[in-house]
Amino acid sequence: MDIISNRTKEIAAMALDGLNERAKAISANTVNVLTPGYQRKEVSFESSLQEIIKREDEKEQTKIQNSIEYQNNPKNVLAGQSPAQIAFLNSQVNDGFLIDVQNDMAEPNGLDGNNVNLEVEMMDEAKNGMQYQVVANLLSKSYAALGSIIKGQNQ
Question: Residue 111: is it exposed, middle or buried by C-beta count within 10 angstroms (0-12/13-18/19+)?
Answer without folding.
Answer: exposed
